[in-house]
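Please check the following.

. . .
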Amino acid sequence: MPPSADPASGRSLRRRLCCFALAGFVGFAFDAGILTILVNLGLDARLARLASFACAMVVTWLINRSLTFGDRAGTDIAAEFLRYLSASALAALVNLGAFMALVTLGGPFARWPVLAVAIAVALSMTLNFWSYFKMVFTPKTRDPDGPA
C-alpha cells in the first residue's frame, strides 16, 4: 500500500484530493452562478453571497459524501450533515470574512464579486479538507461481534 493511502480503505490521498477539488470546482460554479444571477436581479452582493454560499455548501457536501469520502460516509445522514456544517464553520468564517472584506474594499472586487469568491475559496480549502477528513467522515469502525 502506498504511504499516501488511507489504511482504513486503501484510498489514496491523491484520489481524495482530486475528488475534493472536483467538489470544490462544482461548488464554486454553483456559488458563482447563483451569486451572479442574484446580483443581476438587483440583490446586494453581500446578501446574494450568503444565499449562493448556502447552496454551494449543500452541493459540496453531497459530492464529498459520495466521491471524496464515500468509503467513510455514515448512515445517519442528518447527523453527518450537521457535523459537516459544524466542521465547516471556521472555514466558512474565513471564506465569508475574506469575501466581505474584499467586496467592501471596492475596486475590481466590487465590480466583479466572483473574483472575491475565488480568493475566499482558495483561503478556506485546506481547512475544509482537514476538518472533513478528521471530524466529519471518520473511518468506519468494525463491529467486534460482527463478521470479519
The CA atoms of residues 22 and 127 lie 16 Å apart. The chain has a mean pLDDT of 87.
